[in-house]
Amino acid sequence: MVPPAFAEFQLSPEMSGLPMVGNASVIEDPSRELTLEDILEKDWAEFQQQEKNKTVKGMTSSAWWVMLDVDNQTSSTIDWVLESIYTHTDYLDLYHINGNGEVSTILTGDKRPFDQRAISSESFAFPFSSPAQSQEKIVIRYAYDEIGLVELSLRSWDKKTFQDHSSITYYLYGCLFGAGLFVILFILIIHIPTRLPEHYWYLGYVIFVLANSLANTGLGHRFIWHDSPYLTDSAHIMITALAFIFAVQFNRVFLQTKQAMPRADWLLKFLLGLAISSICFYLLGYRELSVKFLLLTGLLLAIMPIIGLWAWKVLKRTDARWYVLAWSVWTISMLVFIGRLSGILEVSDGTLWISRMGLLLETVLLGLALIDHVNVLRAEKRASEEKLIKSLEDANLLLEEKVQARTADLEQAHQEAVSMAETDELTGIGNRRFFFSRGENAFQLAKRLEQPLSLVMIDIDHFKKVNDSKGHAAGDTVLKRIAEISKQRLRSTDIHGRIGGEEFAFIMMGTGLKEATAFAERLRKDIEITAIDSPLGNINVTASLGISAMSSQDQQLAALLHRADEALYQAKSNGRNRVAFL
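and the corresponding structure tokens:
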């Protein structure tokens, strides 16, 4: 005879995640050798009624059986979904016994292929269609290869509500992981200019928190490593341990416990040892001990708000205020998690998402703590720099007057040296060095600002005859007078230089070819009509002028000089005393 459950679960057309396990009978199978036939033949007294909030059976190697009577008292067929919430059970075997006693079996679990699941979901979900006025029995077996956490939470959904719930859940997952990726990007942005070591540990912690969310929600098994039973079995444990390791190291570096709080640093080293030991025990096959070490590490991390508060209030670390708030959120999340395991809190979407969103909120608050930390470090750096500057100012005060006097002497000597080095001794205008140095700067500036620039070259016609017939003194007089005439025509912003024996050149900023040609023609006429007074009488000379204007292809002043020189050669070839341009 099939034993009845303690109470029947009444199906209805509309069900939105109704808890079912409180209506179930449960029995532990320490040997893991019982079969469905054994369960159905067992005496009623061996079964226990499952308490609603005591669905967690702890870390155990036993198999657990759940038997549930399902009753459809309505006049129509109900299509519904049974969901087992916990996502890390190795083997979950479901037996459906209809009103005629026929048994159908669905075998699923983490150690079985994902594509064999009745419904493609990270939790274990099973579709049913219960006829009107029918009574059915559902028997579920939970088991592990070796040892694992047994969680018996069951919920019922009508088909449409389950689909809507799944859509909303995936939207929340998208928000969770999207926000996590944004936090990672934010960390990288603030880390680039600072290069603080705590950023490395914080970045690793956030990455493993996100990876842990993938593992614990079942999304990792569903979308990433579903073909790897080892990762499905171990990822949530190993990733949690790594997240703890990075969290502890971040705390040590951020709070500078080694220097400022040695006793707290010893506690953090102990937590670090626990997290590392949990990985070692897991790899050695001691899964239960590994999980207990992780739980102990998580519980002890709840003391971090107290350590942060000490740093804030006693050590005057103002950047610890966000840190205290962040680890307070962690503590609340851990209390909710422990409450679920102990049965104080009901396993529900609310309690599940408090833990998930709590971890995300903690990482965001830690990011704010890092910003505060960077600002404090900058303020301390500024204060140190200001103190150093003040001491240097005091130390240099006695030397300042002597330095200023010596600097003035050196500056005057420098100006005189520069003037002598850049001035043509005969004419008093710039020499070749001056012209090319200032001219190249003017060229590059005009090119950058996309302004016009022209270069004019002057060569005195038949100057050799003046020297030969009148003497070099007369020739020097002609050169000086030509320099004076040119200077009178030029603007203060133009660059004027003697670049050869009887050759002069001008660079005219903001002047195009047309304006430069008009200027050159006026200058040519001035030279032609000017009688130059010399010891041997008046001397009349003429000059040939070549002009070039800067183009977009020109990269250096030499290009303009070359074209102006060619234009000057053209002017001389065409009879002298004229202006030519290229």
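(Above: one complete record from the training split.) Residues 349-422 form the longest helix (74 residues).
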